[in-house]
Amino acid sequence: MRGFQLAVSLVTIAALGGCPGGTDSVATRVALVAALEEYTAAARTVDPDRIAPFYAADAVLFEPGIPPIHTRDSIRAFIASFPGVVVEAATATPDTIELYGKTAYLWGSYFERLGFPGQPVSAQSGLFVMQWTLGEDGRWQIRRLYRIPLATQLDSVPAP
Description:
The chain is α+β, with helices and mostly antiparallel strands.
């Protein structure tokens, strides 16, 4: 399945080739989609020490219903506050990528199916906007992440 997702991502990147960016914009888009896939894989683990490095030191996470979470360390602590969560499925699909030098914006959609201890499995889907910045070490890191849930449903939603 991963090969299929990568093929779909590469087709998406080719389709987005006309977006703003420099001469290496296709290679940059490939790197950003790869970083998003790596981040999503890390998020499935609910391991704060694996997820936190994807965020810039001054990152901000915007989750509905709670105040913004500022800094990589605070995001790590927030993720650590969910012990025992099991992620059955999590996907993030970029729809639009815009490049402005060392800053990139990814707009897309997400789906997640997860279970909290003592609660029924739930599914959620929605939209996201991510601002990524290119660090001095050449790695793309998340500077801002906005998640906008569109639907919350119980066990009736099948995994993608």
